[in-house]
Design a protein that fits this description.
By secondary structure, this protein is an alpha/beta fold. The chain has five helices and seven strands; from the N terminus they run αβαβαβββαβαβ. The protein has a seven-stranded parallel sheet. The chain is globular and about 50 Å long. The relative contact order is 0.10.
């Protein structure tokens, strides 16, 4: 157990060092068994955070994303948080003025993360396989840059389905409605 944990820590350190040394615009910490975003990374990456445009924290065990994470990586264009245990996002997400794509699929959201509606640059939102029933239709309709919203495999209510389609000018992916059981 401790050996595996040590290997995971070493893998994270290696990936962070590669990003810093090569001055790449992305940080890939997918599949690292992270339960939180390691605080030490902020210090290790302080000289390159402004140049980071893509971060993947997919398939970890994250239960939350802190406001510090959002404000530190303020130049993000793509953020992949799929396959975690997230159920909300910090309000500071609204400060991501360059964010174009966010993947929140396979998490624990019960409602649409409303701070996203204020991110005017968002083009793609993936919320597939969550537990979302309600969607802020009016707010979504005002997101002028949005091109695609994936809500497949969510228990979206039938009323929302009826309201959303005529109001939204983007591709909306929903799972097919299940036929009502016959009496």
């Amino acid at each position: 157990m401790q050996k595996r944990m040590g290997e995971a820590v070493a893998r994270v350190a290696r990936k962070v060092n590669e990003t810093v040394e090569n001055k790449t615009d992305s940080l890939d910490l997918a599949n690292c068994k992270l339960m939180t975003f390691p605080v030490g990374i902020y210090k290790a990456m302080r000289t390159v955070t402004e140049g980071i445009h893509r971060i993947s924290l997919a398939n970890n065990e994250l239960k939350s994303i802190t406001s510090r994470f959002i404000t530190t990586f303020s130049q993000l264009r793509e953020l992949n948080l799929s396959g975690n245990y997230l159920h909300r996002l910090p309000e500071e997400v609204t400060s991501l003025l360059h964010l174009q794509a966010i993947n929140l699929s396979r998490n624990r959201f019960r409602r649409f993360p409303e701070p996203l509606a204020a991110v005017t640059t968002l083009q793609t939102i993936d919320l597939e396989e969550n537990e979302i029933t309600e969607v802020p239709v009016e707010k979504l309709a005002s997101m002028t840059a949005l091109r695609s919203l994936n809500l497949q495999a969510n228990p979206v209510s039938p009323e929302v389905r009826l309201l959303v389609r005529p109001l939204v000018p983007f591709d909306l992916l929903l799972s097919p409605e299940k036929p009502l059981p016959e009496a």
